[in-house]
Amino acid sequence: MSEVQFYKLSTFNFQLLTFIVILPYKALSHLKHNYKPVTVKFYLRDSLTVSRELLGKILIRNTGKKILAAKIVETEAYLGEHDPASHAYQKITKRNRVMYERGGLVYVCFIYGNYFCFNLVSGPEGTGNATLIRAVEPLEGIDEMKKFRGPVKNLHELTNGPAKLCLAMNIDSSLYGADATESRSIFISKPDKREKPEIITTRRIGLNVGVDFPYRFFIKDNPYVTKHKFNKEVL
């Protein structure tokens, strides 16, 4: 092989490698804002703290073709050690095993044989805690969210529930175990402008056990919060 041929081949390989490695990062440049994943340190705290501080942060979903962004407006905490409503309550199973890994990983669960729910693990390894993202406010990629979600009465109905937001943001079991502190497919970012929303605390929704724990949090008066009678209950 001549020096010229070697040079051309080397240049081609370098360009190919650059395309493969850099493309996913460049895809995020289409966003209007400079979103970056929050660090592991954020998640290595108790689930109640993490659940409250996730409010106002931005959920980013990179589908490979489109970038979707939404502000988290409602969460619920689940604590495996004493919470009978938690999937990690006093046992480790194939389904919940990621909840016992370190904070910052994604736990996607399948419910009622039809829907997915998106959770983020919190605390150190072995804790069994997680935060359910119950509702988000769409910010970017809204037309794409509508395609994934299907017909809705109004924009507020697009993502005002855990299963709804998973449909709208194309979140499914393929993301189970993803590291939200490193993944380019799904992660949580701080907003560009720091906000101090008024947070309401209530009981969680739709449970038969652990019903009295005040582990649900949402941004007051946000129209994308799940509509429920507990919204008027301030604990």
**What is the mean pLDDT?**
88
CATH class of the largest domain: Alpha Beta
Instruction: Note the beta-strand portion.
Output: 15-25%
Number of strands: 8
Tell me the radius of gyration: 20 Å
CATH superfamily caption of the largest domain: Methylpurine-DNA glycosylase (MPG)
Name the shape in a single word: globular
- Residue ranges: pLDDT <50 for 5 or more in a row? 3-27
First-to-last CA distance: 76 Å
Number of domains: 2
The CATH topology label of the largest domain is 3-methyladenine DNA Glycosylase, Chain A
| Helix/strand structural class | alpha+beta
Helix content: 10-25%
Supply the CATH architecture of the largest domain. Answer: Roll
Order of helices and strands: HHHEEEEEHHEEE
Can you give a write-up of this model?
- The protein is α+β, with helices and mostly antiparallel strands and 235 residues long.
- 22% of the residues lie in helices and 24% in strands.
- The protein has 2 domains: 1-30; 34-232, Methylpurine-DNA glycosylase (MPG) (3-methyladenine DNA Glycosylase, Chain A).
- It is built from 5 helices and 8 strands.
- Strands 1, 2, 3, 4, 5, 6, 7 and 8 form an 8-stranded antiparallel β-sheet that branches.
- The radius of gyration is 20 Å and the shape is globular.
- The termini are far apart.
- Residues 3-27 have low confidence and may be disordered.
